[in-house]
Amino acid sequence: MPVAGQSPLSPAASTDFDAIVIGSGIGGLVTATQLAAKGASVLVLESYLIPGGSAGYFERQGYRFDVGASMIFGFGQQGTTNLLTRALEAVNVSLETIPDPVQIHYHLPDGLELKVHKDYEKFLQELTDLFPHEQNGIRQFYDECWRVFNCLNVMDLLSLEEPRYLMRVFFQHPLACLGLVKYLPQNAGDIARRYISDPALLKFIDMECYCWSVVPADRTPMINAGMVFSDRHYGGINYPKGGVGQIAQKLVEGLEKCGGQIQYKARVTKILQTNGRATGVELASGKRYTAKRIISNATRWDTFEKLIPAAQMPTSERKWQRRYQQSSSFLSLHLGVKAEALPAGTECHHILLEDWERMEEGEGTIFVSIPTLLDPTLAPPGYHIIHTFTPSWFHDWQHLSPTAYKDRKEAAADRLIQRLERIFPHLSTHLDYQEIGTPRTHRRFLGRDNGTYGPIPRRKLAGLLGMPFNRTAVSGLYCVGDSTFPGQGLNAVAFSGFACAHRVAADLGF
Ligand SMILES: Cc1cc2nc3c(=O)[nH]c(=O)nc-3n(C[C@H](O)[C@H](O)[C@H](O)COP(=O)(O)OP(=O)(O)OC[C@H]3O[C@@H](n4cnc5c(N)ncnc54)[C@H](O)[C@@H]3O)c2cc1C
């Protein structure tokens, strides 16, 4: 592995790559590994010290904390939607994972307590016991999600911008393709209301969507809902042994095995253009590299307002910004706690909300992850990690003195801990370690504008139709990651990575 900050490249090689990938998030790394596996020469430039971005990790006092993601889809063993398994296999690496029998334990308003079991029938039964009058509607809605998933799960998931691939897949799976075309412009909320009328149950479906799409069902594309609501019972939720950071570490190992290179502490400040075509990048150090294709794993806001001057923003990007806005960032609390803080039978992932009106507000919904319940090696013996986060806006943390910033962080952490005591009654007296991250932390360490979690529709749109694919209006420049089709989440950005590499490889003639 190259030494952070030092170029491992010879001067001659430094001017000629097939592809440069800006950023080593999972979207960037899947693109890079797929291209390297096809024989392309690839350089990944990462501004931070380690790979992974929002799927990275950090270590403190014997604890290994996940930066963000911890409920991991895409590690199934069958079908075609297990994109993380496939991405690792493509570069001859693998990762041991630990299956989670319950996706989420919900703690919702009006005493609505419910677990989403891996076993589909067990989940439907638990939900039907709470809403017996909606028995048929519940099954019809979730069965329709399976129809979407079954269409996706038979075909290779590659670039929808590659006509030959589209033709091939259509002739191989005509019914599945027609099925997907039907669902592409639809949102989950419309389909839910076709079958379900109880407002409390519709609120629950809103939360089922919100907890990963950060918008209610009406603005959540049905394709994404079909994936999430079915794959959790099919491939399941599986936690990587050693922590989520292992996914990126393994992809880097595979990249290097295939001859690809990565540099850390290599912040790209500019995408270089020649006659309107992207031809290279410039780093904060002043170093320049050129390549036949440039792929940005930074968000679209960072790519088109910072790496390319905002004044040169293509019309298509302006239009996209009129349709999509930045979601909030998060206030994250990383806790090390004594094992006695957790009641017997505690599940790994929880969602807590006391008032439906506050679902989408700052400090409304609380997300909890306790990965040590699946992999105890992430904490010292007798201790657990609790990673909890809640939406928070960047502007609420600006223009504060260091003392005011620290005080505001501590007050927010206290509020979270107090609310969490509904699930873990003795939490505050069992704390061993505490670290608080704000939207400023997300912006600084993940390089994401305003620390945003990603794009969300400004208003109700036609499903996924408005999300851009990987090519951009700037010739030679591609985007990959959560601000491209199909959106946020590790398996989704892996999809984006497969698609991007496929399109770039076709353009390069591989
Ligand atoms: C708190 C939180 C919880 C989450 N929970 C889940 C979950 O449970 N399950 C799930 O599937 N998803 C979850 N997600 C979402 C998921 O983590 C993201 O959607 C996904 O990791 C985004 O991947 P990406 O490839 O788009 O890029 P990112 O992860 O944003 O990575 C981009 C990389 O590019 C680098 N970079 C940016 N600009 C530059 C530059 N100019 N020069 C060099 N390098 C640069 C950054 O340093 C970073 O490493 C969560 C996210 C957060 C924040």
Automatic annotation (TrEMBL):
Swiss-Prot/TrEMBL keywords: Carotenoid biosynthesis, FAD, Flavoprotein, Isomerase, Membrane, NAD, NADP, Transit peptide
Domain Amine oxidase span(s) in chain numbering: 26-504
Record-linked InterPro entries: Amino_oxidase, CrtISO, CrtISO-like, FAD/NAD-bd_sf
Keyword Isomerase: yes
Pathway noted in the entry: Carotenoid biosynthesis; lycopene biosynthesis
Membrane topology annotation: Peripheral membrane protein
Cofactor: FAD; NADP(+); NAD(+)
Compartments (UniProt record): Membrane
MF term (GO), any: isomerase activity
One Pfam family hit: Amino_oxidase
Catalytic activity: 7,7',9,9'-tetra-cis-lycopene = all-trans-lycopene
Entry EC number(s): 5.2.1.13
Family: Belongs to the carotenoid/retinoid oxidoreductase family. CrtISO subfamily.
Protein name: prolycopene isomerase
Organism of origin: Stenomitos frigidus AS-A4
Gene name in the database record: crtH
